[in-house]
Amino acid sequence: MSSTDVSALIPRFKRAAIDAYMRTSPSGWEINGDSYEIDSSSAHYTVTRPGPDGEGGGDWSSDNFIADIFVGGGKDEEFGAAFDSIRSRIDEAIAPWLHLPDPGTIEGEVASAVAVTRKLSGAAAASEGAQVGAGLIAGNIALVMENSDAMSGAAIAAFKSRFVSQLGPVIGGLHGLSVVLGAALAAEQKLWESARENVRQIVQAGVDASEELAASGATEGYEIALKVAGWAAQGAKLFVPGAGAVFEVVGLGIQVVQGSSEQDPEKETITGADAAAVLSTFEEALRALNEGIAHEETLLDENLSNNLTAVQSQQSSYDLSAPLVQDDPASSSDVIIIEPSLVIEISSTYLPTISAELSGSATALLSASMSCVARDGALGIGASGPSGAWGALRTLLYDLLRNLAWDVTTGAQNLDLVLQDMQSNEQRVVDEMAQFLARFDAGNPVDPWR
From which domain of life does this come (predicted)? Predict the structure, then answer.
């Protein structure tokens, strides 16, 4: 449903509501073409009917010359005011609903979020030596583990325990945050898709009930099932079809919205004995729809905020703050098996690829936004919905991705220098190690916790 669909119904609704008002009034006016008419024992009375655009009408006249002279002007004002009141009531009720978020636009943002989640998937399993898919990050972590397992020594053991074994779980945590963000977008998409259809149904029911009243003086009413409930809880399954909210690292406090997605829809009936009653049930249906939207968005907003708090309270779980890996030439008991070609593969190919993918994920994340859910401030939880909390979590995830990319690049440089240190005592290597130590001591320039 587009806003054009509802806008096209409004003129018809206004005319039908005014028709129903005249038909169900105590005088019981009859519709005759472009006018309403009644007869009394002494005169024939006419009131002009609004046009197809719902505007105009309300001009009273009588074939009784005396009545027309003495009361005609007052009657014009009376009917004109009554017609304007009906039109204003419809306009005020429908105005916030004419420009709703576009599900198609939100779908594009969901696709951007999916791209980030796919890049980050499988990393935790790879660090544990499990089978992984074709993702570049997961695949390259598996290759780092494979090469590392073929070597031994204190430096290699420290590299594996302090760096590689942490890398997968940290990326797994970031993957979880990307799922939370994507799930919220997916929930908003379906929420507004359903809301738009419900608005169209409610307006159409108002038209139909009013036209029935105008034609026969009665209406059986039209029941509308409001279908906005439950979308917040379905967001993760919509975002990751089949598997739903599968977090690769547990115990971090990351959660998606919980609750039953199988809910019986609330039902509203557009009906009434007169035009005013029909308008009241029309307004009540829109109010109930808005309450349902606000409930779902409150769940999303709270979930995003809770996840932000969880990350901030467990900073070390999302940050690869491993100690520096150094060769210890004083350790004569260390049995060292080093394959330079394997180390070079790790430091020059696998880790740089992981770092580039993390940086690319951060860049891709910037292309996802929740500004697409903007609407009238009277709807849901406000003009921007849950986009404030969503944006704060997205910014933190962006910073964490950039931070981790820097850590991985630094880890590659560290490993490369350790290898050179093992192979040579040249002053150049000593100088490069000193420079590296100075950079390491200075810390990560994109660390979000600094």
Answer: Bacteria
